[in-house]
Specification:
Elements (H helix, E strand, L loop, with lengths): L7 H15 L42 E2 H27 L6 H50 L2 H25 L6 H23 L3 H28 L5 E2 L1
Parallel strand pairs: 1-2
Helix pairs in contact: 1-3, 2-3, 2-5, 2-6, 3-4, 3-5, 4-5, 5-6
């Protein structure tokens, strides 16, 4: 698993260098930092190659996804992502010492999302996506642990990491879609995603079951909106990889 003892600034710089080099399109500010202290549950390995196992996709290759498939694939995988993150956050918040099945399910979902992005934008784009996406799942788990431990400092650290992620991933999406999803719009959507899940775990750990359920339903609904915005923007690019 990852060694999270490096200074935050060094780790952020290293990740940013990888992401800028990965994506063929220029990305501004890509790469979020990671938690300074080792989290009790790790879902993101800094030493792993985020491109390992991604499908081979080269620029100019023939159509690999139809427009309807782009929309349905992103919608189902992103909605599942929200539920899977919430499930793992709940287990961490409930002091589950071995949520292996939830970790595996979340990792599988991340790999599937990265595979879909790879089919559209190529291996470099998929690698950059996977790096950012896997990191932000770790930040959510760090937040859940901090809530369980009543650790205000760790909560603030996780919030800062998630704020960095919103900016970084917003840049990724805006650049990859050629500006068809404006930076302000995508960061606003991502802010809602972060608020939904952090408020969810606060309510869940506090035992406010009805509120937690409402917040989770809201989080899934918001993710459908994000999926629609991204999928429609990809379709409007008229990429060679996406057909009628």
């Amino acid at each position: 698993m990852n060694d999270c003892t490096e200074p935050r600034t060094m780790r952020r710089a290293a990740t940013a260098a990888l992401l800028v080099g990965c994506l063929a399109l220029p990305l501004a500010g890509c790469g979020s930092s990671s938690h300074e202290s080792s989290p009790p549950v790790t879902v993101f390995d800094m030493n792993a190659d985020p491109g390992q196992g991604l499908p081979v996709a080269k620029p100019g290759h023939p159509v690999v996804l139809a427009r309807a498939a782009v929309r349905s694939t992103l919608d189902s995988l992103l909605a599942a992502h929200t539920t899977l993150v919430a499930t793992l956050m709940h287990q961490v918040g409930a002091s589950d010492a071995n949520p292996a099945a939830a970790v595996k399910a979340l990792a599988t979902n991340t790999t599937s999302l990265a595979g879909a992005i790879t089919l559209v934008y190529g291996t470099d784009g998929g690698r950059a996506f996977q790096q950012l996406w896997a990191q932000h799942t770790q930040f959510f788990i760090d937040y859940a642990h901090a809530v369980r431990a009543h650790d205000g400092k760790a909560k603030q650290q996780a919030r800062e990491e998630l704020a960095d992620y919103q900016s970084d991933f917003g840049n990724f999406v805006t650049t990859a879609t050629g500006g068809r999803v404006p930076l302000l719009a995508v960061t606003s959507l991502l802010h809602g995603h972060v608020q939904d899940l952090t408020q969810y775990i606060e309510a869940d750990v506090a035992g406010r079951v009805v509120e937690a359920r409402r917040l989770l339903d809201q989080a899934v609904a918001h993710m459908h909106v994000i999926a629609t915005a991204v999928a429609d923007s990809i379709v409007r690019q008229h990429l060679k990889t996406v057909g009628p």
